[in-house]
Amino acid sequence: MSNWRDELNRSAVMSRLMGPARYQAVRSALRMPETYPSMRRYFINTVFDSTFVVLGVIIGTALVTDPVDRMVVLTIITSCLALTMSTAVAVYEAERLEQRIRIMEIERAMLRKLDRSSIERTSQISVILIAGVNAFAPWLAATVTLLPIIIIGDMAVAAWVSIGAAICLLFVTGLMMGRLGKKKSPMLNGFRMAAIGVVVFLMGMLIERTL
Fold first, then answer.
1. Whether this model's pTM surpasses 0.90
2. 170-191 average pLDDT score
3. Residue 6: its pLDDT value, please?
């Protein structure tokens, strides 16, 4: 009963903030069978991509002789901004195409056009939600790795803490994947993802030392 009341209260608050019509449209989009799986799939993929990019940035800018704090921070931010734009646009266009194909299949089955229909509007909102959630993923990696650099005064120490935080983020993401996939050992999946991060880090360090 308490959970039902909490859900009702949250729905009322969101309805007031967004407006009843828009809130219902968003709820309808979230009920579509492909919305949550697409959000989850793209978000996890982008978290991995962003974390590996940030690891490369830290190796190339922070673990060098006389690193410049401002350059490290700006490089991470601009890299994540570029990832945000590229992945959000790519996901938006890909999902828009998939939704259009789906609507065309429905139109053929119903023998009529669905332009400006509730189905088309719900599909458009679903695409925006999927792209929006995906656009947030690079900033999760940026926040996790930037906090030690901003808080810790010594860049040499902060860089290693940021690398550890990035690998921990990979572990948590892998753990979530294991739990969502109902694997017998989600922890093992987390360690596997973290191990991949360690391998990428070691390869980056080898390249940095070689060049």
1. no
2. 82
3. 53
Show me where the domains of the chain are located. Answer: 32-206
Is the Cβ–Cβ distance between 145 and 166 less than 8 Å?
Answer: yes
**Element containing residue 103 per DSSP (H, E):** helix 69-110
Sign of the Cα torsion 37, 21, 109, 104 reads: negative
What angle in degrees, to the nearest 10, is found between the helix axes of 186-210 and 155-180? 150
Query: What digits encode the pLDDT tens for the residues 19-28?
Result: 666 667 777 7
Count Cα atoms within 13 angstroms, Cβ side, for 95: 27
- Given a cut of 80, is residue 180 above it in pLDDT? no
- Burial of 182-203, coded b for 16+ CB within 10 Å and e otherwise, reads eeeebeebbbebbeebeebbee
